[in-house]
Design a protein that fits this description.
12% strand; 52% helix; three-stranded mixed beta sheet
């Protein structure tokens, strides 16, 4: 029983990746002034991929990309996000 408890202890501090997506969506939404759902975000190879956004919203994100990346790195330093597409 003790072996099982020690094994499961490793997984106790894992966090849900949806929490990271939620924080990123809130940061992007605050910068561009519109809501972004976590279903519209995907994180692949340290790149945030935006799906299903209008061209106007995408251009707003592109214009504020550097500020968004800086804010994401400040709030979520463990993710190492390098780009937003």
């Amino acid at each position: 029983m003790n072996l099982l408890k020690n094994f499961l202890e490793r997984f106790r501090h894992l966090k849900d990746p949806r929490e990271d997506k939620l924080q990123i969506a809130q940061i992007i939404g605050a910068y561009i002034g519109t809501s972004v759902s976590i279903d519209q975000l995907e994180i692949k190879n340290n790149i945030v991929v935006l799906k299903g956004l209008s061209p106007m919203v995408r251009s707003l994100v592109y214009m504020k990309k550097e500020a968004l990346l800086a804010q994401i790195k400040e709030n979520l330093p463990s993710l190492f996000i390098t780009d937003i597409r």
